[in-house]
Amino acid sequence: MKIAILNDTHFGARNDSSVFLDYFLSFFENQFFPYLENHDIKNILHLGDFMDRRKYVNFNTLSILKDRFFNTLRDYNFHMVLGNHDTFYRNTNKINSASELFGFYDFFNLYENPTTLCFDGLKIGMVPWICSENKDKVLDYIRTCDAPILCGHFELSGYEVLRGMNFFGGMDDGFLSRFEKVLSGHFHIKSNRKNVHYLGTQYQMTFADLDDIKGFHVIDTETRELEFIENPENKPDINHIDGDKKNNRVDNIEWCTKVENARHSRDVLKSACYSKGYKSIYTTLTKEDRDFIITNYKSRDCEHGARPMARKFGVHHKTILKVLKDSICLQQHLSA
Ligand SMILES: [Mn+2]
């Protein structure tokens, strides 16, 4: 049997940005749930930080989430432990958004106390965020629990918190050494040391995630292997659908890759959107003129340099350079 694992979904991130929420939900709609459907996976573990904000909920975020996430989630068994972002207070987990907002769903199993689950004979220990109130109880459970796999939201020293930057000031990982595998949320980049696996977020949330490989995990209860399913959508750029960079309405912007941005510019907008400078080269020069410039340009040449060609076509010499620059950019983007 296979079990899917999520962590640090941070719904409502970036100050309840609806653009980010749409990007997060598109991962679930286009990748995660179809994968589960295709692989006959019925159980999902969530290792904490379900919502982004610790103290409040934005009703628009909540409404969209119920509509686009929970309506599909109801077909699965969802098992969640608390992360630090789920709890209202820092010293106790008692008041938490997961229980307040979603506790009434029967498929939403929240483990506020350490609990051992069993899937097809494989025991998995689930422990919540460790705070001063539950610390003794959780550590006692970790010392005595007979599950080979432990899931939680640990803050451990010496693990990467940002790519290339280790975190110090957390707990030493020694208390986890008795497990075959420890799976954890909390740090948002995927990293692994000894038996501890920080799974990383499923999608990019900040510029710290730029070009970082994201995805979700699946564990096989028979082989106990942890499989990483990569999220192929690393979309660092914003595309303005109508080409107007000042039109920042939510329905006019979408996440895209540099390649998609260049393609949209070339195929949909006929390259009228890059900027004023780029716009002028497409309105003042024909395709033949531009091809001629690209093919024949020779720096400082008395016939085919920027200035003589500018005289030939009746444009500013910077326009000639823009034609060349644009052509190189487009080629680089399309071949990237
Ligand atoms: Mn987190």
Tell me the number of strands: 16
CATH topological fold name of the largest domain? Purple Acid Phosphatase, chain A, domain 2
Helical run tally: 10
The distinct bound ligands, ions and cofactors come out as: manganese (II) ion
Which CATH first-tier class of the largest domain would you pick? Alpha Beta
CATH superfamily of the largest domain: Metallo-dependent phosphatases
| Secondary structure: helix percent | 25-40%
The H-and-E topology, N to C, reads as EHHEHEHEEEHEEEEEEEEEEHHHHH
Secondary-structure content class: alpha/beta
Overview of the molecule:
- By secondary structure, the protein is an alpha/beta fold.
- Helix 6 crosses helix 10, helix 7 crosses helix 10 (317-335) and helix 9 (306-313) crosses helix 10 (317-335).
- It folds into two domains: 2-231, 4-Layer Sandwich (Purple Acid Phosphatase, chain A, domain 2); 237-335, no CATH class.
- Helix 5 (135-144) links the parallel strand 6 (122-126) and strand 7.
- The chain has helices spanning 13-16, 18-38, 59-73, 97-102, 135-144, 258-268, 276-284, 287-296, 306-313, 317-335; strands at residues 2-6, 43-46, 77-81, 108-111, 115-119, 122-126, 149-152, 160-162, 165-166, 181-184, 191-193, 196-198, 214-220, 226-231, 237-240, 253-256.
- Residues 272-278 have low confidence and may be disordered.
- A six-stranded mixed β-sheet has the order 4-3-2-1-13-14. It has a six-stranded mixed β-sheet with strand order 5-6-7-10-12-11, with no helix packed on it. A two-stranded antiparallel ribbon has the order 8-9.
- The protein contains ten helices and 16 strands.
- Bound molecules: manganese (II) ion.
- Manganese (II) ion (MN) binds next to loops.
